Amino acid sequence: MIDPHIKQQFLSEVKQAIPERQIYTDSLRTYAWGTDASFYRMTPQVVVRTKNEQEVQAAFKACKKYAIPFTLRAAGTSLSGQSCTDSVLIVAGKGWEQFHLDDDKNAITLQPGITGGRVNKILKPYGRVFPPDPASVGSAMIGGIVVNNASGMNCGVHANSDHMLLSARLILTDGTILDTGDEQSREAFRKSHPEFIKKIETLRDEVRKDADLTARIRYKYSIKNVTGLNIRPLVDYDDPFDIIAHSIVGSEGTLAFLSGVRMRTLHEYPYRASAMVYFQTVEESCKAIVALKQLKADEDDMAMTYENLKVKSAEMLDYLSLQSVDDPVYLNYKKDVDAGRIDGVAKGDYHNLTAVLTETKALTPEGLKANIQEIMDTLSRFHLYGEPAFTDDPKVYGKYWSIRSGIFPAVGGQRPVGSSCLIEDVAFHIQDLPHATVDLQQLIARHGYKDACIYGHAFEGNYHFILNQSFATKEEVERYRNMMEDVVKLVVGKYDGSLKAEHGTGRNMAPFVKYEWGEKAYGVMKQLKQIFDPDNILNPGVIFNDDPDCFIEHLKPLPVLHYDLKPRQEDGDGHLAASTMDEMVHGVEKANRCIECGFCEINCLSCGFTLSSRMRIASQREMLRLRQTGENPKRLAEMEKDYRYLGEQTCATDGLCATFCPMKINTGDLTHLLRQLFMDQHPEQRAIGQIGANHLGAMKDVVRGALTAASLGRNVLGTATMKKVCGGLHQLGIPQWSTAMPGAIRNPSQAMLDQQPSELKVVYLPSCINQTMGLTKGAPVKQPLVKETCALLHKAGYEVIFPKNMKNLCCGQIWESKGMTDIADRKTAETEQALYEASEGGRWPVLCDQSPCLHRLKKMVTRVKLYEPAEFIFTFLKDRLTFHPTHRLVAIHLTCSTREMGLSDTMLAVARMCTDNVFVPEGIGCCGFAGDRGFSHPELNDWALRSLHGQIAEHHIERGYSNSRTCEIGLEAHAGIPYMSIVYLVNECTEPRS
């Protein structure tokens, strides 16, 4: 614990350099930001979120002045507890996202907060890739990737962060900035820190004088190894600045802060092929891997990827891994075993089957064909189950790699609720692989982990094993301890391998670093730590920890989420395919599978603004634990109070978090449930919702009146005054007005349609929004969306049918979003019946012009076929229209619902039929308008679209298109250009096909 008096002095000092809004000491946010992907739990007392080097310097200097330990964190996707602390946590994530790509594209300079996935998107147009490719590359940030020396499936030792690093920009504990790639910075450091340089050089020379130690270091780093500090630079580099830069790789935030890094990029091969090869035994598969690694490529490969192997990946999957994903070959193998068709294998014994997912790449088709033939010739010497077949079809080999990536979520999803899903990783030297793999399988089974899978990067001798582990009892903790101690004896004592190959030492392996490396090498690591951090205030307890039990302390509790809901079911929803309440409850039950990995955060729009999806689940778990134990009522009350805004009100419930979640958890379900609980406690608000549902037509008239009044106010007061007045009213709880607010339109009706009868018919359901909202002032189009859509449909020869009583119909989305699931389902059922009747029992297709509304209807309705505008245009209209593309550059916004319905490619395809200049702004996921949330909480919309205006201006875009009117309001307000439905673009660029 930090002394309270010292803590206040520290806070006073850092607040002079860092805005107070970036410093958290409250119970909720310190707990939330203290969450990482490991199975350890520590709560920082202070969280400092930094945006630039000056803020990091200020935080470092204050910590050093008051001797306060601190820990650094980027995305928090690390698995070994290296970003946990109970002191000060300094975050450098969002906001640290600048990059510079060299002119020749051979290297890229990166800030620590940009994700690996985004770096690969930047490099893709140039045929380049970012070498490290950990499984978390889509969510992990560069700072974490580099300081953990991450690698991955296609990244061996040759291309890990250490070998690909060219230079580093660092901030030391005294606040000094050193850029090892800048000669002026190096010279300044020589003058300001001569002793530092001298100590590095002395340590280098001492290590090199010891031939045995030098040889051991080279041997240990010949395979993947991230146990302890990285001491390879002491034997491989002469320049002390190169040693300093490379020592940071794998240091896990124990030496300095990495504020920038320059890395090599590698070429991507144009041709590749994969095969899933099945072996009769584990040992046989390992022997084959040893043989495949002897197949050497030519010099062109070395120039491409710094690697001369013909086989680029070899991922081993044991039988439990195959079983977890219902691999079809494994299922067939079981049948053969039980039928007695496998010689020497007893019925019911399936443990021998092992698969190796193999990939080769080449510069030419001929080269790829030659590689495949040589690999097949090598494999022919081994006992296979079935004949392997290589494919260069991305759709086919994509399925193979999906099997590989599906193991972890499959095993994690099957674990008992309340238990942790642990991923340990070790590495063996390739010659030891056949025997070491069998030994590891037997060891894990001996400790009672019957469902533990072994899989991983066999070419590197690097295996992951997944354990479903409970820490609820002393007996379970002891079982884990005994298993880990036996793993240490096997990996190090018997095979001299690596206890940590990729995932970092952290707290998990800290007690065993000396055992793996030996006294002399461990002493070198301690000296290196002393040079960088003489006060031992940087991430203490990580890598170096004198407590032999630290790997089983501070274990993360995972209480089961459970809430008491009042059962509700209204009459009239008998034909619906699903119940919103049942779906919501199931979603919350699924949230108990959350392993807090943080993969979701890349798609969570409120991450970095309030709380992320992961933080919401973690915080709810903690509040539930506090209720169950009754241990700290004051802290519980504080967390509950703050969660109302930070957790619930600023959750967009867009569902995009589920798209990156290994368990497909939609945290929006949890938020909807909490809102329903709130409605149970506030029946007066639910009553208002009930009135609105029963008198929807009248409510639409009220909205039209408000829009008309707002338009009149703008005309009378002027835009500037109107913004100021409405800004003040918003502080009193009135919905926020913006310059993109549209005017009102009359209620659409069948009578307004001027059309000819046609054999082609479509039922058109305009959303409630598009039934009430017209055009924005100064819009570059002439008629509201309903009329524009009808005009396009008529142009294509369709007769339009409006459902009866349309003014009272609604998809139910607004009630679902506010926690009134029964009312939502009633409104959906009314709409479904009206659409069923209008479509003559499902005979005619149904078009809905608002993607979020359609998304809900598609989940709930099965008796009619529903289409979103771009989907309907692509499916039914494109062949009945002649397109005359414009060359105008347009922006396309892909709404959350468009992405979740899998219609992004369709939307872009339709846009590209209309123009050859389509731009999708980078980093814009959910816009944050979230139905009406953009009116009630516009700050969420502001945060989500904070980078939009700059991109629009940079590309000189004049118009944007989407498929959700409310989203378009927020987009227009922030981009400074009109945003409208894609229907307008298609109508502008087409004529009837003769």
Would you write up a description of this structure?
With 994 residues, the chain is an alpha/beta fold. The chain has 43 helices and 29 strands. The strands form 8 sheets. It has a 6-stranded antiparallel beta sheet with strand order 12-14-13-16-17-15, with helices on both faces. Strands 5-6-10-8-9 form a 5-stranded antiparallel beta sheet. A 4-stranded mixed beta sheet has the order 1-2-4-3, sandwiched between helices. Strand 16 and strand 17 form a beta hairpin. Helix 8 crosses helix 11 and helix 19 (433-446) packs antiparallel against helix 20. The longest helix is centred in the C-terminal third of the chain and has 22 residues, at 696-717. It is globular. 51% of the residues are buried. The mean pLDDT is 93.
Features:
994 residues, alpha/beta, six-stranded antiparallel β-sheet, five-stranded antiparallel β-sheet, 44% helix, 13% strand, globular
